[in-house]
Amino acid sequence: SQTIHQWPATLVQPVGSPLSLECTVEGTSNPNLYWYRQAAGRGLQLLFYSVGIGQISSEVPQNLSASRPQDRQFILSSKKLLLSDSGFYLCAWSASVTEAFFGQGTRLTVV
Amino acid sequence: RKEVEQDPGPFNVPEGATVAFNCTYSNSASQSFFWYRQDCRKEPKLLMSVYSSGNEDGRFTAQLNRASQYISLLIRDSKLSDSATYLCVVPDTGRRALTFGSGTRLQVQP
Question: Do B100 and A36 touch (CB under 8 A)?
Answer without folding.
Answer: yes
